[in-house]
Amino acid sequence: MFDLSSVDLLDAFTRELQLCKLREGEHVVVLSEPGSRGDYVAAAFGAAKACGAHVIAATVPGGSPAPMPSTHTGAGPGLVSVLNDSTAQDLLKSADLVVDLTREGFIHAPVQQEILRAGTRIIFVCDAPDVLIRNLPKEADKDEVLEGVRLLQKSSVMRVTSDTGTDLTVQLAGAKPEFQCGFADDPGRWDHWPSTMVLCWPEISDGQIVLAEGDILLPFKEYVRQPVTLQIAGGHIEKVSGGAEAALLSTFFEDADDQWARSLSHMGWGLMRTADWFATAMYGKDDLMGMDARAFAGNFLWSTGPHPILDRESYAHLDIAMRGCSVSVDDTQVVAGGRLVER
After folding, report:
1. Is this prediction's pTM over 0.85?
2. 130 Rama class: left (phi>0) / alpha (psi -120 to 50) / beta
3. 34, 37, 40, 45 alpha-carbon torsion, rounded to 10°
4. Contact status, residue 218 vs residue 189, Cβ threshold 8 Å
5. What is the per-residue pLDDT across 73-125, written as a single tens digit (0 to 9) for each?
6. How far is CA 222 from CA 192, 203, 281, 293, 314, in A?
7. Which of 77, 155, 191, 319 is the most exposed place for a label (fewest CB within 10 A)?
């Protein structure tokens, strides 16, 4: 029997590459490893051809030195086979667009910045098919996240509170606001399909974060069952207390044996209105990256570990997605009780 699953994905990948402004005659590399989804490789290859581009499908040996055995952690540096192979790197630098279908991507690898500096656009794709299609971005998403970036750029303080006890003050000076909109349309741009979020990289934050029942710990892909309280001082987690998940987090920090494991990294809020908070419960852990949780409209997402603005390299990377928070940037409230403030 024929495997026609990639046919169902062809339209979605074509629309995605069109959002990435793929033009006739441009060069596309579809990057995969043996564990990548074959239907994604076929759909991306066919979509690039449908756009009139030159396309090469490159499969490199798999494997990542990420400290966690589960895939789709977002914590590793990417494929060693590319990191240690200048020929593979040169191929990616020569492309106008790379469709990255590997299991980890190169989110925290310095080589990704080298590839981007060459002008290559990179779109990273790894979630389940219906997650991709349900959250297919719109061109207007970029305008909305850029509005959030401009707000952060002109502001000095972000304040995050919740009815469960979160009260965090974040200093925005030098925090380098950024965004993800789900497509990479500018030269030297990396993005992630699906994703719609505003984020920044602050150095100093102080106060208290209280994880409520139903918040999501990534890459564990687990919902919080008992409240967890984290005391934050100077951008570092000084104390973790609470139930089972508190013990899980404390053990992770200790086992990481990494000086930056308890340091806060990026933080911001999601704007992906099509995201499903319960998607994490509907799939096996190997089936998705968890972008529904990371980019859910009205969430507060914060992380630990690596911090490119401070030249802090670390694989002790957690993303924690929270609902029910209120987020204010100076005098402007952007999220109220877990819901976006529409403008």
Report:
1. yes
2. alpha
3. 20
4. no
5. 556 666 777 888 899 999 999 999 999 998 888 777 788 899 999 999 999 99
6. 22, 27, 8, 11, 22
7. 155
Write down the residue that tokens 């630098």 correspond to. Answer: 93
| Tokens matching residue 99 | 């469709």
**146: its two tokens:** 């850029």
Tokens of 253: 């920090």
